[in-house]
Every structure is written in structure tokens, then in C-alpha cells.
Predict the 3D structure of the following.
Amino acid sequence: METFSNEVKQAIIFAQHDFCAMKDCFNQIHSIHHKLRNTEFNRKNFPLFIHSPFNAVRLCSKCHRDYSKHFEVTEFEAEMYEEFLNDLILGAVAEERANQDCPNGEEN
Ligand SMILES: [Zn+2]
């Protein structure tokens, strides 16, 4: 099944210093938890957000089992992130096109 890229996994490990994200837990990371569940519905409706770092949290095995609900993202929040990521991509594409349309743009 489709999941987080290695790039996202490494970034999350680095950001969390290899420790579980649960407050007051100092166990080592065991697995990456999708805050919004990795279901077919969510993959279809939130294709940019679902495997992004915004939807990833690394937990130890105990906290993954007992406390993953603490890190839940609502569908409303997922929509907000999805729009944000979409705007970022559209902005990058527009910028690239603007640079291509105006080859002399770098001279000013
Ligand atoms: Zn933990």
C-alpha cells in the first residue's frame, strides 16, 4: 500500500530526534502514524496531504497502540492542508511558466 516516502520518513525521524512524539515518553520511534487514516477515501480526497510530513507522526509501539488518537487530524483540517499544498504547487508551476514565457526576465 502507498505510504510515506523515505524522504518524509527521514525528515520526521530527524525532526523528532528519534524519540516518540508523545509527551513525556522517551521511547525510541517504532513506526510512523498517519494522523488522518491512510484509507482509499482519504488517499483519493487528500492526495497531497495524506503522505505529507503534516500528516506524519512517529511513535513508539506502546503509544502507537494506546495514544494515536491524540494526534488525530479532522477532515476539515485535512481540507485546509490540502488546499495549502495545492496552492504551493500551483504557485511553483505559475512561477516556472512566468520564467519560461519571458526569457529576458533575468536581465533586469
Ligand atoms: Zn511513546
